[in-house]
Write a structure and sequence with these properties.
Elements lengths: L8 H11 L14 E5 L2 E11 H4 L6 H17 L7 E8 L5 H18 L2 E9 L4 E10 L14 E4 L5 H7 L9 H12 L5 H7 L5 E4 L4 H9 L5 E4 L9 H7 L3 H6 L7 E5 L4 H10 L5 E7 L3 E5 L5 E3 L10
Parallel strand pairs: 3-4, 8-11
Antiparallel strand pairs: 1-2, 2-5, 3-5, 6-9, 6-10, 7-9, 8-10, 11-12
Helix pairs in contact: 3-4, 3-7, 5-6, 7-11
């Protein structure tokens, strides 16, 4: 039995995986997606859940909830370097939800599918105490998916965007009016209507040794990349968003905290072999994205950050985790 004090999202996942052995999975055991070879094509699917009472801030609209419920699953498919082909939608709605809110919810889903592509194939609807949306995204492709773990010492670790806004948004959820207007708008956009880095993920297929999305925070994402490899990561550059000085002062939080311990940025975190770096940058820029180098794989276990004063400190493995 799992001790009550030790029960959390990750301990629950470990408990389940040990009791339901997998077979035929072409991706690592703890990957965000599952894949197999099906009639000479690779079937990869990933699912995620959006729960109103735990995942939705008070300033998010119902349409934004619908859009984000697809984004969180598509982001996992994007990190595999693939496009979504089909979706399976499971929803729970409270009694009295009403047509007005439901139309807005569907509008958000339609916006997401129109943006990401793919076909909604079916699903299930039930009654629940709050709005609960679970989207399973499936990709059927001739291309191999990018694994979440991998790389060797010397490989470059890079991200597709900057970090910090979501940390600010969740910490200042009820006092966002204290922020400068331009920063407040960016924070709201990052939290309420994040867009999966789908084009960037597809561009990285064939050049990235490993890739994951940063939905649980950068620190946890970096630890996930090296899980089971025996390697580590040295971060030498913080991909901090511009204009966070005022938020840092109000919160009393460092850029280090904002970058590593936020969550739900939905950027991609990739490992690129040095010999493929220029090719990777060109591919991502060609689709309108960017690739920011933040560090490298090292042969020392753990995730480390080299500060501006030259001192190297260990990055704590902390971020968003359900049930904890």
């Amino acid at each position: 039995m799992v001790k009550r004090s030790a029960f959390s999202e990750y301990s629950a996942i470990d408990f389940i995986k040990k009791r339901f052995p997998q077979s035929g999975n072409i991706l690592p055991l703890y990957d965000d997606a599952w894949g197999c070879l099906l009639k000479k094509k690779h079937l990869v699917f990933a699912g995620d859940m959006l729960v109103e009472t735990t995942d939705v801030p008070p300033f998010m609209t119902i349409r934004q909830m619908g859009f984000k419920s697809f984004t969180i699953s598509v982001s996992d498919i994007a990190s595999k370097g693939l496009l979504p082909t089909y979706y399976y939608l499971i929803i729970g709605l409270p009694r009295g939800f009403g047509w007005r809110r439901f139309r807005e919810l569907v509008a958000g889903w339609r916006q997401a599918v129109n943006l990401y592509g793919g076909t909604l194939m079916g699903g299930d609807t039930n009654e629940s105490s709050c709005v609960t949306i679970s989207v399973v995204a499936l990709s059927l492709s001739n291309r191999l998916p990018i694994p979440r773990t991998g790389g060797k010492p010397g490989d470059i670790v890079a991200v597709t965007g900057t970090f910090g806004e979501t940390y600010v948004g969740f910490k200042m959820m009820r006092s966002l009016d204290r922020l400068p207007e331009s920063l407040r708008k960016r924070v709201l956009r990052k939290i309420c209507r994040p867009v999966a880095r789908l084009k960037e993920g597809v561009a990285l297929n064939g050049v990235a040794a490993a890739c994951t999305d940063s939905s649980d925070g950068l620190a946890i994402s970096l630890y996930n990349i090296i899980r089971g490899t025996g390697n580590g990561i040295l971060v030498e550059r913080l991909p901090v968003s511009k204009g966070l000085e005022e938020a840092s002062r109000i919160l009393g939080a460092s850029f280090y905290q904002m970058v590593f311990h936020g969550g739900e940025e939905f950027e991609l975190v990739a490992v690129i072999p040095r010999g493929k770096w220029r090719k990777a940058v060109k591919r991502v820029e060609r689709v309108g994205g960017s690739l920011i180098p933040i560090g490298r794989i090292i042969d020392r276990k753990g995730v480390w950050y080299r500060r501006e004063d030259g001192k190297t400190v260990r990055v704590l493995r902390s971020g968003w985790e359900h049930l904890k």
